[in-house]
Structure formats: structure tokens, C-alpha cells
Amino acid sequence: MKATQELKNEHHGIEQMLQVLDAISAKLGRGEPLPAEHMDGIMEFLTVFIDKCHHGKEEEFLFPALEAAGVLREGGPIGVLLVEHDEGRRLVSKLKQCVSDHRSGDQQAAVGIQETVTAYVNLLRQHITKEDTVLFPMADAKLDAVSDTVLFEDFERLERERIGAGRHEAFHALLDQLQGIYLDE
Q: Which parts of 7-91 are beta strand (E)?
């Protein structure tokens, strides 16, 4: 299905950002500086690309379509994933505060950044595995071609309205840049 394939493709980009976060955390652990412009881009990626765009597509369109097809929210996979989305938001908020504290000169905030990055990365890796191996195959089995087309169109509209034209590509350019800096060393 086109809709679930789009979400899987986004997972690939998210996993790349998680690798960058791991590398940044390791640099902080070695006492290396935290470039503000990189963290600004990363925070924007976490809040706009992951939460507003990717999680928005799931929460506003995919999950309701699955519920309409008989998949349970409470006591089912949708409820679990929604709790994890909320936990991710909490961790991103905490990470933003730690980054702000670190910029203000609080060197202890580096430990908070590392701990929060570890928790966030672990959460999202497990979350992505659940979606890729349980939820998306379920969606592919339960939703027909018409539903898939409607979902895909809704996803595209959300992306245009929520993050704007060209932003998806800009986030991928940011990923490429950060990977070149942090992962190709």
C-alpha cells in the first residue's frame, strides 16, 4: 500500500536521525562541543518532521481508518502507539530544556542531554519496529485500495498544510548534512 510505504520511508529517515543523535550524545560524553545550529535543526526535525508530520499522519488518518476497520484502540496496538507518541513528545520537551540549559553554560546539562537522547532513541527504535512489523502489515491486510488512496492523499495534504512545500526535502538535506558530519567520521 502506498500509504504504509510512505510511513515506512519516513521511518528510514527517522532512523538516520536517531543514529545522528547517538553520535552527538557520544561526542558530548567525550566533552566535545554541541554545535547550536545542528541542535536547532535536529529539534526542528524532531518536532516538525517526526511529530507534526509523521505522527500527525498516523494519529489523524491511519489510526482512525484502522479503528473504522475494526482494530481496537484500547487494549490494542493503536492505544500502545499513542502512549508512545506522547512519551516521545515528553522526551523531546525534556531534551529541548536540557539543550537550552547547556547553551546557558550549565555543563551538567550534557548528562541530561545524553540520558534523554538514550531514552528517546530507544523508545523510537522499539516504536518503529512495532509499526513496521505489526501495525503496517495489519493496515495492509485490513484496508482496501480505495482506503489506501484516500489515506495517501490525506498524508500529502497534511504535509503541504502542516509543514509546507519543500520542507520534506529540506529535512532530508539536513539529514544528509548531519550524517556527513557525525556518521562519516
A: none
- What's the grid cell of residue 4? 504504509
Q: What is the mean pLDDT of residues 94-108?
A: 93
Helices assigned H by DSSP within 45-166: 56-57, 63-68, 77-103, 109-130, 136-142, 145-158
CA separation for the pair 75, 85 (Å, rounded):
16
Give Cβ neighbours of residue 147 (< 8 Å, ≥ 6 apart).
65, 69
What is the rounded CA–CA span in Å between residue 57 and residue 53? 6
Is pTM beyond 0.70? Reply is yes
Span 4-20, pLDDT tens digits: 999 999 999 999 999 99
| 122 neighbors 157 (Cβ within 8 angstroms) | no
Q: Are 41 and 174 within 8 A, CB to CB?
A: yes
The residue-averaged pLDDT of 153-168 equals: 90
Residue 137: how many other CB atoms lie within 10 Å: 12
CB 132 within 8 A of CB 35: no
184 pLDDT more than 80: no
Q: Which domains does the chain have, with CATH numbers?
A: 2-182 (1.20.120.520)
**CB of 29 closer than 8 Å to CB of 114:** yes
Q: Of 106, 124, 118, 110, nearest to 46 (Cα)?
A: 124
Q: Is pLDDT of 163 > 90?
A: no
